[in-house]
Amino acid sequence: MSGYGYPPAGSSNGRGGYQGDYGNGGGGYNGGYGSPQGGRGGYGGGRGGSGRKRARDDDQHGQNFRRRYSERGDYHGSPRRGGYGGGGGRGDAAPYDRVPSHEAMKTRFKEELWTLGNDSSYDPAIDIPSMAQSIESWYFRDQSLVFVAFRSAISEMPHKLPHYAALLARLSLNAIAAPVSLASRIGGGGGGGGASKFTPAAGQSPPRAANSSGGADGTEANAGLEGEDAKPAQPEPEKVNVGHAIVQDLAKAFQAFLDERKWKSVRYCVTLFATLTTLPSTTPVVSLSSLITLLTSFVSVLDEPGLRAARGDECVRIVLEALLRLDPASLNEPGIETLREGVHAYMSSRRIEKELFADGENQGQWLDPLEHLVSAFSSIGSSDASDSTPVSDVIPNVYSALTLAPAEEDEAKSQVIEALMLPMVLVPPESDEGDLTLGAGAAIERAIPAPPITAGLRGDEGIGYDGVRLLLRLFDDETVPAVDEPAGVVVRSMVHDIISLYEVNRKDGATLLLELPRWFKKGTFRDPKAPKRPVDGDEDMPEEPEPLGPQWSLETIVVETLIVLILALPAPPHTLVYYYSVLTELCRISPTTVAPSLGKSVRKLYAALGASGGEESAGAPVLDAEGVRRFADWFAVHLSNYGFMWGWNDWAPDMDQSEKHPKCVFVKRVMDLEIRLSYFDRIKNTVPGSMLEAGVFPDEAPGPDYTYEDPEHAHNAAASSFLRTIRSKAPISETEDELSAFQKSLESENNMTTEEAERVKRDLAVQTVLFVGSRSFSHFLNALERYLTLLRNLTTSPSARQELLTTVAVFWKRHPQFHLIVLDKLLQYRLVDTRDVISWVFALADDQPGTRAKTWSDPDLWVMLQVTLRSVQKNVDGAKMRVEGLGREAELVGAEEDNRAGGEGVVDAEGDVAVRDADAPENPELAMAKSYLQEAEDEQASTLIEVLGYFAKLLPSDVSRNDWETWWLEGWVRELCRSSFDRKSITSQVIVDGIAKLDLENVSPSVASLVEAAKAWHDFA
C-alpha cells in the first residue's frame, strides 16, 4: 500500500490508484510500477505514459503547486517508476529502462536540496559533499534552477540555515570548470530527456553551444571521437566558484525581498550572510566588514523622523539576530560598536504605554520581545551572562563535521579565494499606507499585492511589518529558557518563525515543531523518552552522567508560545483558529508529551483568574476581560476535539464566588461554547453534578422562544393565522393587510391606544418571521430577504427599531449565538443602524423584562458591541477599496491616453506613472466614491465617540474599584481603545472634537487615561 508521496507497490492487474498502486490500468497520480502485461505511466509521464497536464497551474515549480502540496510539493515518486515525467510503459514496454525526463530530474534535484537533513540517517560529513557535487553538476546545466531552489530554501526553511551555510561554504572552497561535454552529464535522449540550454554565469562563456539533441557540438557521437575524426580541442573554460555565485544571487534576491517588503525573507538572508562570515574559518565566504556595512543600512533607518515602531523594531530585529550568529570575538570590531550605539539610542527613545494592556499591578507581566532581544545581545561578554547559554551551545556548527579529501584540501590551499563583499543596500522608505506596504515602489501598485516574482510563502508577501505586540510568560523555571538569554532568544525566535511560516499547513507545522531538536545541538532539548535522573536517596536507579546542554522542554516552549500568541496584545499575528488547530495537531501527534504541558498551562492560567497580582497569582499571568474571553474561546474549541472531557470537579469549589468573578464567567462561557460546538444533552453528560448545582450550566437547551405559540396566549389565534400566511410565502401587501386588521381589532376590542397596538403588532410580526427562520441560518436568511420591506415598514422610527432589537433578544434569549447572527444581519440589511444597536446594548440591564439577564461580565454583550463596530469598519474598508480601484483605473486610462497622444504621464519601466495635471477635472464616479468614504469615516468616528461616552457614564470618577462589574467595564474599555482605534482615526478631527466635548477628565478619569494611552500607543506603534 502506498502512502501519500511515496512510490506504491506495483501489481500486474487493476487500475492505477491515487499514487498508481497497480501497473496494468490507468496511471496513478505519481505513477505506478510498470508491468510486462502493460501499464500506463503516471500523471505527467513521458511519451510512453498517458498522464495529462492539468488545466490549472500545477507545474512543478509554480507557487500554486508548492502551496497545495506542503508548500514545497510532493516529489517523492520515483521517475524510474512512472512518476513525474517518468515515461511509464505501454504494452510490453516496462518503464524500468526508460531515462527520466529532464523536468523530472530537475524536480528531484530541488527536492533533494529542500529535504536536506530530513532523513533519519542524515550525516553532514557524507550528505553535504554529495549534495555539493549534485549542485555543481546542475549549475552548468541550468543555472537558474539552482538559484531559484536556493532562494526558496533560504526563505522557507530558516531551521536549516546552518546546514545550507555549511553547504555553501563547501561549494566555495574552490572554483571548477564546466564539463567538456554536457551530454554525458545530462544523459541525453530517452523519455523526453535531453540537455537544457547552458546558462553561463556572469562573465563566463559556455564551453559549447548545446543543441536540442543533447550533444554539445551538434552530434552526440562527436563528443567521444579521437584521432583524425576528432574536432579541434576547445579552449579551457573559465572556472567558476559555484558557492560564491549562489551567494551573489542570494544577495540579489535579498534586495528583491527588501523592495517587496518581505521582511521574514530579508531577516533569513541576513542571518545566512552572518553565518557565512565565519565559514570556512580560514577564508570566510562573506566579508565581515561588508556585513557590518549592510547592517548599518538598517540602523540608519532608526534615525528617520517620525519613525514608527513597527518599522524600527523590524530593523533592530534583523540587525541583532544577525549579530547573535557571529563569533563573539567579531563583536569587538569597530563597526559593531556603531551598530550597538544605534540600537541603544533607538531603544532609549522607545516607550510603550502599558496602561493600555493592564492595570497598575499587572503591567509588569506584559513583556516586550524586542527589549529582551536587545538585553540578550547586550549580555554577550558581560560578567552577568556567566549563567546564560550562548548561541553557540545550541546552534550546530555543521561545517565542522565536514572533512576534505587530500586532493581537495591541496586544491583549496592552492587557490586564493577572497571573501565576497555584500552589495550596498538602501532600505525602502515608508509608504503612504503606513504598515500596509504592498507594492514595490509604484504608486499604482500601493493597494494591490506585489506579484510573487521571488520565493516566499504566503504570509510574507510584502504585506507589511510584523508589528509591535506584547506577550505573556507562563513558565519561569529551568524547563524553558530565560527571556533575555541569547540561546533562548534564538530558540524562541525559531519557534515563532515556524509557527508563522506554516500558517498554510498546520499539520506540517506541528510536525516540524516537534522535530526541532534535530536542527539544534544534542542536549538543547530534553529527551522525553530518556530515563529519569535519580534523586537523592534513590539507590535503585543507577546514576546517569550529567547531561550536556540546557535540556529545555521543547513541548513546554512550543505550547507556551502558542498560548501566549493567542493572548497577545493588541492582537495575535494570525487568525486565532490557526493557533487552536496547531495545538490540536500537536496533541494528536504526541499526546504523551504535549498534553501534560498543555494541561499545566491551562491550570496555571485558570488559577490566576481574578487575582490582583503578586503572590496571589502564584507567578501566573493575570488576564483582563479580553484575555478571559480569548482563553475561554480557545479552551472550548480544544475540548471539542477531545470528547469535551475535563476534570471539572477540581474547579467546582470556585463556583461559590460571585457569578461575575472571572473564574465563574470563564467556566460558564466555556460550557456555553461547548453547547454551540455540540448539543445540549451531549455536553450535560460530561459535566459533573457539582457543576450543575453551581448554576454555571444552562437550565434549558438553546432554542427559540415564540411567545405566541402558547395556546393560552391572548393573541395565539392571530399569530397562528399570520404564521400560516408567512409560511405560504404570501406577498407583502397581503401580510400588511392582515397586520392592519389585527391592529384595528386590538384598538377596538382590547381598548389599546394606537401606539400600544402598533407595538403588539410589530412584536407579533417580527417574532413570526423569526420563528419561520428559526430552523437554520438559511431559513432565517430566506425569510428575512422575502419580508425585508415588511420589517422595514414596521420599524421606521428609532423607538420602533429599539423594540425590534428587544424582540429579537427575547426570542433568542436561550440561544445567544443565533442572537448575534440575527443582529449582524439586521445591521447588514440596514434594518437598524449602529446608533440603534449601541444605545440598546448600553440600555440592556439585568432587570429588562423578557431578555436574558446580561451584565458586562457576559462576554456576549461585548461581542454585540464588536459586531456593531465591525459593521462600521466594513463600510469604511469597502469605501476605501472602491476609491482605490477607481483611482487605479483612472491612472491607467490616463496613462493609455497619454501614450496614444505621445504626451507625458507615460508609464515608465518600473511601472511608475508621472504626475498628471492637478487642474484636470476629476472623474465624477471617483468623486462620489471619495464622498462616500468620507461619510463612512465620519460615521465610524461618531460611533466610537458615542461608545466612549456611554462607557464614561458607567465609570464615573467616584466608581468603586472593588466591584467586579467595574473590573469588566474597564477591561472592555481597554480592548475598545486597543482594537477599534488606529493611528488615523484617533487623530481625526471628528474624534478629537468629540473627545473634547465628552470632557472625560472630569466625567471619567479612568476612561480619559485609557484614551490618552491609546493615543500614545497608536502614534508609537
Helix and strand arrangement:
Elements: H1 63-68, H2 102-114, H3 124-139, H4 143-156, H5 161-171, H6 182-186, H7 242-259, H8 263-276, H9 288-301, H10 309-323, H11 334-348, H12 369-379, H13 406-414, H14 486-501, H15 506-514, H16 554-566, H17 576-589, H18 591-607, H19 625-640, H20 662-677, H21 680-684, H22 689-694, H23 716-727, H24 732-749, H25 754-772, H26 777-786, H27 788-794, H28 798-811, H29 816-828, H30 834-843, H31 859-901, H32 924-954, H33 964-979, H34 983-986, H35 989-998, H36 1000-1003, H37 1005-1020
Helix pairs in contact: 2-4, 3-5, 4-7, 5-7, 5-8, 7-8, 8-10, 9-10, 9-11, 10-12, 14-15, 14-16, 15-17, 16-17, 16-18, 17-18, 19-20, 23-24, 23-25, 24-25, 25-26, 25-28, 28-29, 28-30, 29-31, 30-31, 30-32, 31-32, 32-35, 33-37
